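lol ok so funny story. i was supposed to be doing the assay writeup but got distracted and ended up predicting the structure for this chain instead. priorities right. anyway since i did it might as well share w the group, maybe its usefull for someone
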Amino acid sequence: MKVGVIGTGTMGKNHVRIYSEFKAVEEIYVFDSNKDTADRMKEYDAIVCDSIEELLDNVDAVSICIPTKYHFDVARKVIEMDIHCLIEKPITLSVKEGRKLLDLLRDKNLVLGVGHIER
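and the output, tada:
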């Protein structure tokens, strides 16, 4: 399995580290708007992408570890590309946005999970 992590701050780094320990994970792709932060993930043999689109073109599943205000737009893009998604809590800023994501998922055979690593 090839996984991606969008956002490589503290929580994203945790995801990368954990994925690097799974035998089922063949490759880890990362993207962060701060290239220096993303480059630090090379410590875990992660492949640094120049865009979210580049990351999504290469993965089977994605962890979204960015500020909540960006969750909806990024998750929508991930779902539209038929990629499984784990979103760090909270899923979105509003119930309305959350319902829109659920509507997108209804006709797809995808998993959308919510990360509660710190709970």
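The helical segments are 10-20, 35-39, 52-56, 71-80, 95-105. The domain at 2-115 is CATH 3.40.50.720 (Rossmann fold).
back to the writeup now i swear
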